[in-house]
């Protein structure tokens, strides 16, 4: 995955960069920049010099924290394209190599490091806005049909994804059985009979897509539901119930979403009984 398209990772980099910049500003309160008209051996001496009577232990602690944060920013330069081209040294990552401002013959200066941080922060903001605009919609399990998620939730949260799918499928089949008042055949057959186009019989109610049953669109929905419902039972419920194969989260979520669609369709159907068999 391209890190430039992950809003979570861009947010992570932005947060660590903010911490890095705060720590760098603290570091600089214990130093003076070796720049300007009064610079000492500019280009030979370090770019920053320790102030007199500075707490050396505190400086070491801040330096350690900056190095830790620099490690978390190992991808920042490549993600934002913020880097420095230094003659004789090539391309320099100003975040990972920030401490070189303390070296003799430094290749970076404090103002350069801080400026790169600000530029990277702005680029991260722009990248995040673009990533958010281009992001694909996601499925939230809690927004699936209540029948599906209530059956799956506990097992899902415990990490038993295949069993969660099986439980959800059983719940949707139970919805159909309750409406048709049938439990006298395998589920696949019951789904096919529930949406069959022929007239109901005593003890064999049908589920009808609402509308004029002579209308072609209604006929298409009715036959589609007959195939969809029985097919979902065969390819989702049966493997989840009888196979031991581990389901990955995405695959399990897609199955729950399919069952949710089926449950919503069943909600919209009308029960067709033989008169007196209600």
Could you write a compact summary of the structure shown?
The protein has 278 residues and is mainly alpha-helical. The protein has helices at residues 7-29, 56-72, 76-80, 110-134, 146-157, 161-180, 187-194, 216-242, 249-268; strands at residues 31-33, 48-50, 84-86, 90-92, 206-208, 270-272.
Description:
With 278 residues, the protein is mainly alpha-helical. It folds into two domains: 3-134, no CATH class; 141-272, no CATH class. It has helices spanning 7-29, 56-72, 76-80, 110-134, 146-157, 161-180, 187-194, 216-242, 249-268, and strands at 31-33, 48-50, 84-86, 90-92, 206-208, 270-272. Helix 6 crosses helix 8 (216-242) and helix 7 (187-194) packs antiparallel against helix 8. The longest helix is centred in the last third of the chain and has 27 residues, at 216-242. It is rod-shaped, with a radius of gyration of 32 Å. It starts with 6 loop residues before the first helix and ends in a 6-residue tail after the last strand. Residues 144-264 form the Conserved hypothetical protein CHP02391 domain. This is TIGR02391 family protein.
